[in-house]
Amino acid sequence: MGHGSWYFAVQVVGASGRPEQVRRGGFASAEAARCAGRELLIAEADGPLSAGCTVGQWLRYWLSVVGVRLRPTTHRAYRDHVRLHLVSYLGRVKLAELSRRDVTRMFVALGRRRNRYGQPISASTLERIRATLRAALNHAVREDLIPSNPAQGVRLPAPVRMHPVVWTARREAAWRRGGERPAVAVWTVEQLAAFLRFAGEDSLFVL
User: Is domain 6-142 in CATH 1.10.150, yes or no?
Assistant: First the structure.
């Protein structure tokens, strides 16, 4: 078969309780199609087919059923949002009991987190996480599992604005002593010139 022409077809019990034939195509290889089919069957075996399931169960089910229709990069982003953020904060909440307050608390907590560089999660990343959750819950609404989407209308924390500071000798000394440094630092003209002189003989200097 040509590139992207492999597919899988499996039968599952849909969210409405009726058997459904699920067929998805566009996979690059037969093995990729088989893996996607297995993931769908595993997700269905968890039983997230009623409002009594947890948010974590529903998110995994949604990824398997809907995610395979998406471009690989989009599906990977959705999967990362589910794995790294959504399941951690909301995974054990019953889908039918999920409230806007639960979602708001999650985003407040995410807004306070820092990465390994000491920087907060960016506003654009928070927006994408919210978009993933909103899409998953919209699907639950369409399946009549919940009456409305609790992620709609949730306001995200105000972004923390980073103000650049000059990388002075004093700040460099503090960094060398204890690793303390500003989140955004800029070189002085002298520092930039020193870097260009140092890199001038490198084969990648033009880049």
Answer: yes
